[in-house]
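step=encode ok
step=design start
structure_in=
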């Protein structure tokens, strides 16, 4: 990432800053939940992110082919539902656990079709992490929140697959911008149903702008810069730190304390994800969460 004077952020710090930015944004979002609710907060983030991307990318909608439209519409729907469901999840469970459970989706995708014995180890570690988080004991973890986080992971995996397809048929910046516009259309009805208009105040627009910058504009720019300078495998390994950063963000910004078992679950999922990325024979294109 360079400015006009030629200053460049090295790829590894760029990815780490991106992860911190995303999780700080999630912490800000959760702070807004008590007033606006998860659906309205998610809508605020996506709509403002769309406006920011439109200003910078100015996509031309007239020249899209039928194939491009079909793919980008599916991409936008997946993007919107992924963000909405994740926010609904962390409304019920700690941020660190939500990120950890959501991360299972891309991990399973990375291991799909593999028959190597070593890859089964990563599956076992991830399953052990889920078992430690699962609310079947007296740990008082919300079951619906757990299921929503896992569902968000499914949409994240779908988002990666569709993102990989769309990157082959149209410009990435244009695709993300149009996808965010479509995601806005998908998610606004949920926000209206949650009463966003009745509770909206100017201060929330400022919070929403910060949320859009931290969760979308800044990390997307940093990640695109880093991906041009490092292998996808290295990028995937660094992304494995997200659950830990999410847990630390929840602790620092939201005073969410995890139990020893929950921290063990986070570490198991990180190990599984990093191991899967490290031992992958043919690294696939990585599409980060927006």
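sequence_out=
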């Amino acid at each position: 990432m360079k400015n006009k004077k030629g200053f460049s952020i090295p790829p590894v710090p760029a990815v780490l800053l991106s992860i911190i930015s995303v999780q700080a944004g999630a912490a800000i979002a959760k702070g807004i939940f008590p007033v606006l609710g998860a659906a309205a907060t998610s809508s605020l983030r996506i709509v403002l992110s769309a406006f920011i991307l439109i200003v910078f990318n100015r996509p031309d909608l007239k020249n899209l082919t039928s194939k491009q439209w079909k793919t980008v519409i599916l991409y936008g729907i997946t993007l919107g539902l992924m963000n909405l469901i994740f926010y609904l999840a962390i409304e019920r469970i700690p941020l660190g656990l939500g990120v950890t459970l959501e991360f299972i989706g891309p991990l399973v995708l990375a291991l799909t079709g593999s028959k190597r014995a070593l890859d089964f180890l990563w599956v076992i570690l991830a399953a052990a992490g889920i078992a430690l988080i699962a609310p079947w004991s007296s740990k008082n973890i919300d079951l619906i929140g757990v299921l929503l986080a896992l569902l968000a992971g499914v949409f994240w995996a779908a988002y990666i697959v569709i993102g990989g397809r769309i990157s082959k048929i149209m410009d990435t910046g244009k695709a993300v911008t149009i996808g965010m516009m479509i995601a806005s259309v998908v998610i606004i009805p949920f926000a209206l149903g949650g009463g966003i208009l009745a509770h909206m105040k100017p201060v929330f627009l400022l919070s929403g702008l910060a949320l859009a910058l931290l969760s979308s504009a800044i990390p997307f720019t940093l990640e695109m810069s880093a991906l041009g300078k490092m292998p996808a495998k290295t990028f995937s390994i660094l992304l494995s730190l997200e659950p830990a950063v999410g847990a630390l963000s929840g602790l620092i910004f939201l005073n969410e304390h995890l139990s020893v078992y929950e921290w063990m679950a986070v570490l198991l999922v990180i190990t599984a994800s990093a191991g899967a990325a490290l031992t992958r024979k043919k690294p696939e294109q990585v599409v980060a969460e927006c």
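step=design ok
step=annotate ok -> Residues 11-279 form one domain.
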